[in-house]
C-alpha cells in the first residue's frame, strides 16, 4: 500500500511519512478491515509441484491390414512390353569418351554432363535402422493454447476410415541425385553449380534412410505415408522404349514392403514436378512417355498400393495446352489401371489452391475476380475431370491465351476419370479486381496481371493481415477460411470425397533457433490443431466428405533451393542426418486420437 501511495502524484512528500506510520500501525494492530481481508488466506508448507507422469506415443499395430488392390506382378507382367531392356546405370563421367550405343553407359554419363554439385552424399547404401529410444517418444507437455471453440468440437469424431498421414516428395528429401542409376529431371538445375542455391544432392537422404524414417513414423502412430517415385530413377532417359532401371524398381518395392511391415499404408505420387529433362509437358508425345513409366510402377506395386496420385499440382504450370496433355495422360493411365490391370485402388490428381476471398464481400467486381481466379486455378482441369464440362469461358475468352477448347473426344476421355478430389490448401488469400477492370486486362497480354487479371493480397480491407504469417508468402494461420475452402470444391465439382493432400506451416526464424526451441514448435501445432478443428466442423456441420489429411512434411525438406522454410514434423541435422521429433508431430496424431 505504501508503494502505491508513494507513486500518487497528488500526495505531497511532506505527508508521506505520516501516512506510512498510520498504514503500518493498522497492519500491526490487525485492524478489522485487514483482519477480514486476510481471513481468506492461510499458510502451509511449500512443496515443489509433482512431476507429471510421462506419457508416450502410441505406436502402430503391425503389419498394416492385409489387402490386395490389383493382381501381383507375376500375374500381370505380360501387360508390359516384352522387348523392354532392364539394366542398372552407374555414373562414370569418363565413360562419355566411349561409344556404346544410344542408351549405353556413355550416353547415361552424357545426361549428367551439365550437372555438378558441391556436396556429395555421405553414404551410398541403405542404412540399417536403429530402435527409437523410449525417451524420444515421450509426449510433449500440455498445450498452453487451444482453439477458442475447441470445447464445441469435443464430441466430433473423424470417420473410421479417415486417412491421417504425412506427405513428401522425392526431389525434396531423397538426396543421391546422381546415384543408383537415376537420370536428371527438370528440378536438378536447382542448386547445380554454378548456382548459389542449396541443391538436393544430399537433402534428407531418405533414399538411404527410408527404413529409419518409416520406423520413426510407425513409432509415433502415423498410419499413412505419401511419397513420390521419381520418373527418372525408373526410366533414366525418360522416354518410351528406353531402358528401365532395375535398381530403382527393387528399391521402391522394398520401401513399400517396409512401410506395410511397420503398419503404414503407402500412397504413391507418380510425378511430383520432377519430369525428365527430355519430356516437357508440352511434348506432343508426353502421354506415351508418361504411360511407359507409370505402367512400370503400377504393374509392380499395384497389388499393395491403395491410392495413386498421377500428378502433383499441375495447375501451377502456365495455362496452355500442356495442361491438356497432362489431362490426357492422367485419363489414359486411369483407364489402363481400371480396365487392363483390373486395379481396385483409387486414383486422383492433386491441385494447388489457396482459396481467394473477395476483398470486399459486397463488391460484385471482387466476387467476379475471385471466381475468375478459381476458373484459372481449378476450373481449367476440374471442369472436364469432374463435371464433363468445357474449360471455363473466362479462360478461353482471354485474349491470345495459348490454350484451345477441348474436343468432344477429349472431354469424353477425361470426364469421370478421377476417384476423389485432392488439393493442397495451405491458406487463403484476398482478391480484388485490377485497376482498369478485368476486361481491359484480359484484352491486353502485356498487362503484368494477365492472364488471370486479378490482384491478390494477404491484407484485409480493414488493414489486418489474414492471419499469423509464416516464413513463406502463401501459408498463414487462418482457420476461419478452412470450411469455405472445403465447401467450395465440394459444392463446385461435387466429388465423392475430398483429400487435403498437403498442409503445413513454417515459422519465421526456425533455422536460427537451438534444437530445443525448434522442437517446441507451438505455432505449427496451433496451425494443425486449428485447421483440424475446422475439418471436423466441415465434416459434421457442412456435410463435406473430407476423407483425409496429409501434413507437409514428415521431415525438413529442400523447399526448391532453401532449407530455411522448416515445414517438417521432424528436424534434420545437416551433418549427421539425425532426425528429431517436434511437438507438432505428436500433437497432430494426438488430436486425431482424441477425435477417433
UniProtKB/TrEMBL annotation:
Keywords of this entry: Hydrolase
Superkingdom, natural source: Eukaryota
Any Pfam family hit: Glyco_hydro_1
Gene Ontology annotations of biological process type: carbohydrate metabolic process
InterPro entries recorded: GH (IPR017853), Glyco_hydro_1 (IPR001360)
GO molecular function, one term: beta-glucosidase activity
Keyword Hydrolase included in the entry's annotation: yes
Family statement drawn from the similarity comment of this UniProt entry: Belongs to the glycosyl hydrolase 1 family.
Name the record gives this protein: Glycoside hydrolase family 1 protein
Species per Swiss-Prot/TrEMBL record: Sphaerobolus stellatus (strain SS14)
Amino acid at each position: 500500500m505504501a508503494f502505491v501511495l508513494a507513486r500518487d502524484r497528488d500526495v505531497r512528500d511532506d505527508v508521506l511519512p505520516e501516512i506510512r506510520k498510520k498504514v503500518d500501525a493498522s497492519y500491526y494492530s490487525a485492524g478489522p478491515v485487514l483482519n477480514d481481508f486476510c481471513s481468506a488466506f492461510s499458510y502451509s508448507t511449500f512443496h515443489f509441484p509433482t512431476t507429471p507422469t510421462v506419457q508416450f506415443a502410441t505406436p502402430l499395430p503391425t503389419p498394416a491390414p492385409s489387402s490386395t488392390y490389383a493382381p501381383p506382378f507375376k500375374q500381370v507382367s505380360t501387360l508390359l512390353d516384352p522387348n523392354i531392356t532392364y539394366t542398372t546405370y552407374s555414373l562414370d563421367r569418363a565413360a562419355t569418351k566411349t561409344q556404346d550405343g544410344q542408351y549405353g553407359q556413355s550416353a547415361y554419363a552424357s545426361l549428367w554432363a551439365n550437372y555438378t554439385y558441391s556436396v556429395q552424399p555421405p553414404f551410398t547404401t541403405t542404412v540399417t535402422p536403429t530402435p527409437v529410444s523410449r525417451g524420444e517418444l515421450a509426449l510433449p507437455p500440455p498445450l498452453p493454447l487451444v482453439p477458442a471453440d475447441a470445447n464445441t468440437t469435443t464430441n466430433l469424431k473423424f470417420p473410421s476410415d479417415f486417412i491421417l498421414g504425412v506427405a513428401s516428395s522425392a526431389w525434396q528429401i531423397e538426396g543421391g541425385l546422381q546415384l543408383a542409376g537415376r537420370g536428371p529431371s527438370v528440378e536438378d538445375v536447382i542448386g547445380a553449380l554454378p548456382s548459389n542455391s542449396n541443391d538436393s544432392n544430399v537433402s534428407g537422404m531418405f533414399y538411404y534412410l527410408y527404413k529409419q524414417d518409416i520406423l520413426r513414423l510407425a513409432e509415433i502412430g502415423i498410419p499413412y505415408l505419401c511419397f513420390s517415385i521419381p520418373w527418372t530413377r525408373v526410366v533414366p532417359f525418360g522416354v518410351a522404349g528406353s531402358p528401365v532401371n532395375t535398381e530403382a524398381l527393387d528399391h521402391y518395392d522394398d520401401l513399400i514392403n517396409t512401410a506395410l511391415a511397420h503398419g503404414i499404408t503407402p500412397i504413391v505420387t507418380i510425378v511430383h514436378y520432377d519430369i525428365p529433362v527430355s519430356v516437357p509437358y508440352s511434348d506432343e508425345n508426353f502421354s506415351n512417355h508418361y504411360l511407359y513409366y507409370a505402367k512400370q510402377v503400377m504393374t509392380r506395386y499395384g497389388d499393395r498400393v491403395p491410392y495413386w496420385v498421377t500428378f502433383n499440382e499441375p495447375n501451377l504450370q502456365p495455362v496452355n495446352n500442356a495442361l491438356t496433355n497432362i489431362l490426357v495422360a492422367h485419363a489414359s493411365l486411369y483407364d489402363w489401371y481400371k480396365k487392363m490391370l483390373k486395379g481396385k485402388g483409387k486414383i486422383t490428381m492433386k491441385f494447388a489452391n489457396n482459396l481467394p476471398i473477395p476483398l470486399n464481400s459486397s463488391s460484385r467486381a471482387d466476387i467476379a475476380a475471385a471466381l475468375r481466379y478459381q476458373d484459372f486455378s481449378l476450373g481449367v482441369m476440374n471442369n472436364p475431370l469432374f463435371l464433363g464440362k468445357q474449360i471455363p469461358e473466362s479462360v478461353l475468352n482471354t485474349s491470345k491465351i495459348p490454350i484451345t477448347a477441348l474436343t468432344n473426344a477429349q472431354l469424353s476421355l477425361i470426364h469421370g476419370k478421377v476417384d476423389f478430389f485432392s488439393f493442397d490448401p495451405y491458406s487463403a488469400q484476398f482478391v480484388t479486381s485490377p485497376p482498369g477492370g478485368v476486361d481491359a486486362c484480359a484484352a491486353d497480354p502485356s498487362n503484368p496481371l494477365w492472364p488471370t487479371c486479378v490482384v491478390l493480397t494477404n491484407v484485409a480491407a480493414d488493414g489486418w493481415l489474414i492471419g499469423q504469417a509464416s516464413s513463406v508468402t502463401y501459408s498463414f494461420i487462418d482457420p476461419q477460411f478452412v470450411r469455405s475452402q472445403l465447401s467450395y470444391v465440394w459444392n463446385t465439382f461435387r466429388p465423392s470425397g475430398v483429400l487435403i493432400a498437403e498442409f503445413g506451416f513454417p515459422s519465421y526464424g526456425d533455422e536460427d533457433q537451438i534444437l530445443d526451441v525448434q522442437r517446441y514448435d507451438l505455432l505449427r501445432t496451433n496451425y494443425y490443431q486449428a485447421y483440424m478443428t475446422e475439418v471436423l466442423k466441415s465434416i459434421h456441420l457442412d456435410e463435406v466428405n473430407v476423407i483425409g489429411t496429409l501434413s507437409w512434411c514428415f521431415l525438413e525438406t529442400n523447399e526448391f533451393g532453401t532449407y530455411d522454410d522448416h515445414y517438417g514434423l521432424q528436424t534434420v541435422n545437416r551433418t549427421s542426418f539425425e532426425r528429431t521429433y517436434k511437438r507438432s508431430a505428436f500433437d497432430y496424431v494426438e488430436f486425431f486420437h482424441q477425435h477417433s
